[in-house]
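Appendix B, Record 12. Input sequence as logged:
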Amino acid sequence: MVGTLNSPGNSPFHRIGPTALARSPRRWSTIRGVLDRVRYPEPFHVYPKGGHVMKQKEPTSRCSQPQEAMPVTCCRQSWDMSQERAFVENLLGQRFNFFLVFFSIVLAGYVNAKGRGQQTLILGIGLLICGMLRQTLSRAQNKLEVIMGILENTEHHPIKEVNDKVDKVARKGSRRRLIGYHIPALCCLILAAGLFVTILFPRLIP
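Logged structural output:
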């Protein structure tokens, strides 16, 4: 029989006087259990004859059980250095394309600007943003250099074999640093030179 605090007929201490309570420690333990349920309410079953209060078993689920930690080798097997190289190269290419698009927009805005004030403002803001984009390109290029260095030192890796054959035909050394280092620096230098000439030598600009 499920006992509730709102139904006095089902209460284990119904019609219990002080004398009976003092003579029956078993009923007193039952009352203490019920009072504990008032402080911490939860479903329970009451058996008045035996005087026992039993907690209802909580349902167990697979999610509540502790799970074993995933080994680190699982992630290493699913993502190797070659996939990381492809990811970083794709990221570097996307950033480089965005840099060139923004640089072209700055130049177009400078040409179509009216007055020295607008030209100076466009070149100043363009130089600032291109400088920050150049830092992101440099960061991605540094990661790519580290990854390529690891793969080139790996025996029997396709990158190492291809580089060895290319070095025999053409000049040694990679040209990938042009994208991450040299071209962005040259674009920022062009904007800085245009800003310098616009401010100090405005007569040189038609």
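The first helix runs from residue 18 to 23.
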